[in-house]
């Protein structure tokens, strides 16, 4: 893993830099590290591993020059995680924002500078900084590393971020604490979607399609897709399994592995330490008989306008209404989509009659969008689409709801 450390001027000292160099030495071959220091001093001899970016020895750079120099280092190194150190620095908050804007993961170590006694000292002079940038910076970081249990309790009392762990040196791990490398791995495992490559996502899609059996037949894969599956490494499969666990479709992925006779060891995702989800997805099956939520108008259409001989249409309408509710609620899972896909794939209905009922229910456009999603996830064929798919901004919103994983 590659870690870029940014050390603010408020905590610059030889001990902090020396500690980071010790961590790098202890994890040689495992952690590649770059240390960036906000300092107005020129580069010293023997410090090739440290980059000073805030001055040329006579005066500090302006914010635009500083941004250009930092981004140059950021893109030349391309870290997995950017680790920021220290508090009460506007420049550090800007560095954090530059990283977030470019989709880099961030970890934050305040090093005791957010403890209660520090905040209360000259509180009114710190309040503007808290409101302007410090609180937002803590809230938006992917994880916080406390130096000891006391600091962790102080950070918990602030309530700005719950993803807090105690970090220790690589050689001395106290009870309840973790090493830097373990915490970095926890952050990476908690943000699997961030590290999924194109080939891995294609493999995820292929396993998803081949893991669903409709009428005793599983989804057919192209020769290129099968070849891509054969080249999956155990590390890549672990990332795919973690993503499937977050999207509640791990059982489908595992069936896909078995159906394609891949020699991959099943991953116990529960044994991998990760930060909890801010909001879990619904694990209840997608019902085709009862609405999750509805009004008198919807119940009237379902009960009075649908004939007894059109039970399949009724079930499909209920599933689509429930799907819309889950999308609006943000609790939709890929498992729900697979249930809807199987229903569409096996239903023989009057498409004109079905389209009229969807229009009366006010879900015709949503149905077209969800059909587009089913085509993308499971390759739903044209012959099984009761309506033409629709790919617009509304469809993109549904994609974001499905694929957004917040911790």
For the structure shown, list the relevant keywords.
alpha/beta, two-stranded antiparallel sheet, 18 helices, 10 strands, 10% strand
Strand arrangement in the largest pleated sheet:
3-2-1-4-5-6-7-8
Shape designation: elongated
- In round numbers, the mean pLDDT is 86
Largest sheet: 8 strands, parallel
Distance between the termini: 21 Å
Proportion in β-strands: 5-15%
**Rg (CA only):** 26 Å
Helix segment tally: 18
Structural class: alpha/beta
- The total count of strands amounts to 10
Output the helix-strand order.
EHEEHEHEHHEHEEHHHEEHHHHHHHHH
Low-confidence stretches: none
Helix proportion range: 40-55%
Structure description:
There is one protein chain. The protein is an alpha/beta fold. Helix content is 52%, strand content 10%. It is built from 18 helices and 10 strands. The strands form 2 sheets. An 8-stranded parallel β-sheet has the order 3-2-1-4-5-6-7-8, with helices on both faces. The protein has a two-stranded antiparallel sheet with strand order 9-10. Strand 4 (81-85), helix 3 (90-101) and strand 5 form a beta-alpha-beta unit. Helix 3 (90-101) runs parallel beside helix 5, helix 9 (198-210) crosses helix 12 and helix 14 (311-329) runs antiparallel to helix 15 (334-346).
Offer a concise description of the structure.
By secondary structure, this protein is an alpha/beta fold. It is built from 18 helices and ten strands. Helix 3 (90-101) runs parallel beside helix 5 and helix 17 crosses helix 18 (393-403).
Write the layout of secondary structure elements.
Layout: E1 2-7, H1 14-26, E2 32-37, E3 50-52, H2 63-77, E4 81-85, H3 90-101, E5 105-109, H4 116-120, H5 123-140, E6 143-146, H6 149-158, E7 164-168, E8 178-179, H7 180-190, H8 192-195, H9 198-210, E9 213-214, E10 217-218, H10 223-230, H11 234-246, H12 250-259, H13 296-305, H14 311-329, H15 334-346, H16 351-361, H17 364-378, H18 393-403
Parallel strand pairs: 1-2, 1-4, 2-3, 4-5, 5-6, 6-7, 7-8
Antiparallel strand pairs: 9-10
Helix pairs in contact: 2-3, 3-5, 9-10, 9-11, 9-12, 11-12, 14-15, 17-18
């Amino acid at each position: 893993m590659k870690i870029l450390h940014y050390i603010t001027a408020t905590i610059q000292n030889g001990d902090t830099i020396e500690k980071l160099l010790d961590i790098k030495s202890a994890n040689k071959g495992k952690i590649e590290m770059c240390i960036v220091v906000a300092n107005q001093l020129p580069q010293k001899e023997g410090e090739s591993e440290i980059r000073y970016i805030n001055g040329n020895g006579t005066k500090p750079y302006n914010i635009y020059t500083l941004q250009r120099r930092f981004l140059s280092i950021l893109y030349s190194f391309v870290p997995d995680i950017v680790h920021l150190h220290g508090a009460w620095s506007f420049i550090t908050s800007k560095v954090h924002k530059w990283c977030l804007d470019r989709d880099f993961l961030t970890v934050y170590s305040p090093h005791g500078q957010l403890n209660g006694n520090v905040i209360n000292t000259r509180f009114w002079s710190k309040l503007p900084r808290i409101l302007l940038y410090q609180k937002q910076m803590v809230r938006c970081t992917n994880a916080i590393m406390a130096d000891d249990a006391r600091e962790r309790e102080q950070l918990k009392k602030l309530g700005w971020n719950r993803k807090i762990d105690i970090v220790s040196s690589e050689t001395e791990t106290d009870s309840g604490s973790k090493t830097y490398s373990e915490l970095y791995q926890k952050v990476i495992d908690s943000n699997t979607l961030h590290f999924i490559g194109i080939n891995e996502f294609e493999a995820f899609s292929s396993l998803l399609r081949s893991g669903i059996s409709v009428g005793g037949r599983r989804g057919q894969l192209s020769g290129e897709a099968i070849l891509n599956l054969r080249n999956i490494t155990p590390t890549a499969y672990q990332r795919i399994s973690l993503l499937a666990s977050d999207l509640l479709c791990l059982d489908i992925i595992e069936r896909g592995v078995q159906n394609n006779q891949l020699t991959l060891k099943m991953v116990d995702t529960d044994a991998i330490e990760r930060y909890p989800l801010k909001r879990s997805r619904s694990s209840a099956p997608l019902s085709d008989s009862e609405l999750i939520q509805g009004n008198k108008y919807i119940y009237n259409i379902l009960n009075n306008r649908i004939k007894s001989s059109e039970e399949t249409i009724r079930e499909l309408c209920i599933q689509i209404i429930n799907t819309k509710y889950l999308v609006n609620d943000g609790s939709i899972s890929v498992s729900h989509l697979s249930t809807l896909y199987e229903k569409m794939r096996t239903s023989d209905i009057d498409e004109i009659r079905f389209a009229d009922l969807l229009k009366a229910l006010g879900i015709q456009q949503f149905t077209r969008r969800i059909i587009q999603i089913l085509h993308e996830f499971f390759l739903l064929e044209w012959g099984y689409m009761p309506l033409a798919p629709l790919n617009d901004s509304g469809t993109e919103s549904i994609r974001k709801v499905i694929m957004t994983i917040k911790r």
